């Protein structure tokens, strides 16, 4: 079915070729048609759910999408052992404001915890400085509590060297 004077492959044309390589999903081939040498991939339809050519040459022949299109693998969490006697970290003023307001709003928005959480941050931003200062003062007192408890914890667990270093930090 070759047309005279045409050097372009046509549908239904018979071509001669060589199999250059084989892989799980098909063959790498080189075909000669007139003066043109064509290189390509022939996929085995029996092993593929759909008998369609791959859209990009970068896609692995096994049908697996390229790494850029696959979901990222989850990294394993590293669990660290925390001493139960170690003092809890201090809280900021916002950390005192949040649970107080959350408890107040929860009866009104029962079952809508996410909405409550999203409402609280703008409310904190709209507080007057005098109102914020009440919570900020609680935060400062909690920092002082944390420093005192850490000094006691370090002196009891590590000796005097760490405690004196922590005391120097407090003095600054």
Secondary structure elements and their pairing?
Elements: E1 16-23, E2 26-33, E3 36-43, H1 93-105, H2 113-126, H3 129-157, H4 160-171
Antiparallel strand pairs: 1-2, 2-3
Helix pairs in contact: 1-2, 1-3, 3-4
How would you describe what is shown here?
There is one protein chain. This protein is α+β, with helices and mostly antiparallel strands. Among the domains are: 12-49, no CATH class; 93-171, no CATH class. The protein contains four helices and three strands, in the order E-E-E-H-H-H-H. The chain has helices at 93-105, 113-126, 129-157, 160-171, and strands at 16-23, 26-33, 36-43. It has a three-stranded antiparallel β-sheet with strand order 1-2-3, with no helix packed on it. Helix 1 packs across helix 2 (113-126). The longest helix is centred in the C-terminal third of the chain and has 29 residues, at 129-157. The N and C termini lie far apart (92 Å). The mean pLDDT is 79.
Proportion of helical residues: 25-40%
β-strand number? 3
The biggest sheet, with number of strands, parallel, antiparallel or mixed sense and barrel status, is:
3 strands, antiparallel
The radius of gyration computed from the alpha-carbon positions, rounded to a whole number of angstroms, is 35 Å
**Total helical segments:** 4
The parts where pLDDT drops under 50 for at least 5 residues are: none
Name the beta content range. Answer: 5-15%
| H/E series | EEEHHHH
Ends: how far apart?
Answer: 92 Å
Main-sheet strand order equals 1-2-3
Rough shape? Answer: elongated
Question: Structural class, judged by helices and strands?
Answer: alpha+beta
Whole-number mean pLDDT:
79
Keywords: DNA-binding, Nucleus
DNA-binding region: 87-154
Protein name: HMG box domain-containing protein
Domain HMG box: 87-154
